[in-house]
Structures are given as C-alpha cells and as structure tokens.
Fold:
Amino acid sequence: DADVTQTPRNRITKTGKRIMLECSQTKGHDRMYWYRQDPGLGLRLIYYSFDVKDINKGEISDGYSVSRQAQAKFSLSLESAIPNQTALYFCATSDSGYTGELFFGEGSRLTVL
Amino acid sequence: GENVEQHPSTLSVQEGDSAVIKCTYSDSASNYFPWYKQELGKRPQLIIDIRSNVGEKKDQRIAVTLNKTAKHFSLHITETQPEDSAVYFCAASKPGSARQLTFGSGTQLTVLP
Structure:
C-alpha cells in the first residue's frame, strides 16, 4: 500500500544537538507537511512544501528548517535542539486537488534532555 | 489567521450513548471542515468532512453539522462503541492555493463499557 514513512520513530537527544527527522512517501502526492503535536495544543504546522522548489513557513517555524530533496522526500531539521522542542512530530502529504485530505506518517517522538 | 477552538477537551460516555464535540472558527472565509480521529499510538486519520455549501453530512454512525452564521461545526457520534475511544481533532481551512488546515486542540473521547 502507498504510505508515508517517518524515521526515526523515537529519538532521545541532548540540548544543543542537531537532529534530522526524515519523511518519505509512496503516495505520489505533491504536497508535504511537517506538524508538531503537543498535549492540549492539537497539531500545529511547522513547514509545508508544494513541490521540490517550494518551501513555506507554517505557524511555528522558528528553530526548525526543512529540505525537500525530491518529490517523495521531505526532512525536518532542528539545528540546535532545546527541551521545549520535545514533542511528537508528524509528516503528512496531500494531493493538489480540492479535497485536501492529509495522510499522516506514523509519527516521530523526539525527546530533548 | 484562523483560530479554531474545540470543546470539550475530554468526554466520557457510556457505550451506546451519543457523543457531541463542538468547534468554533474565527475566519468567515473558511469553507472546509474536516474531522480527524487519532487512536492511541496511531496516526490521525480523516473520518468525515464538510464543506460550507452543505449544513449536514452523515456517514453511518457519525455526522457533522455546520452553522456558517455562528461559525461553528460539530461532530456527532451515535451508538458509541469502545472502538470510538480516541482523540478527535476538528480543523478548518479556506480557499486558496495553500489550503492550510488549522486544527483544534483535540477531544479525548472515552467510551465506557
């Protein structure tokens, strides 16, 4: 089945370390997103990309960067991790049609000590 | 930007009873309102959505209603079952090439046997 795959699924790191979360998809979708989930805050958009040459900031992009290496790959980087970036991170994809349904990956749980 | 408020944050119901989750949105231009279900340890998945040209949509035991004048929409689950226990997120988006979704903070629904 076509899917959205995230690696790593779990990561524990220390303050100040650089971390990369990777996302790949076999759905053939153009649009890719990175969301952050915190208890009581829902899902908040970090960055999104509509094609390989398109990168857009979401509502909480500070402290994060992204790279769209190919249509199927979208990575999220924390250049210098801090404890309040401890969260569950989701990659998602959608097609460019009107529906806009998001297809999420399984999530990457990041803990910054 | 858009702001989506979701209530209640937690909801417990007896199996077989109905559950209602309510959301309000701030941007009158929003015209697409999906609901996502996230089971424990799983990824969010779309369960139903509604567009502003209709007032109600049903799919078996779930329904969504929309009141554009009051800018609120609700998820109704009838004859609840244990497998309905999950976190439910509402979201809103408006027309345009971005079609970013703004999510509510989530409702933890527990169906008691």
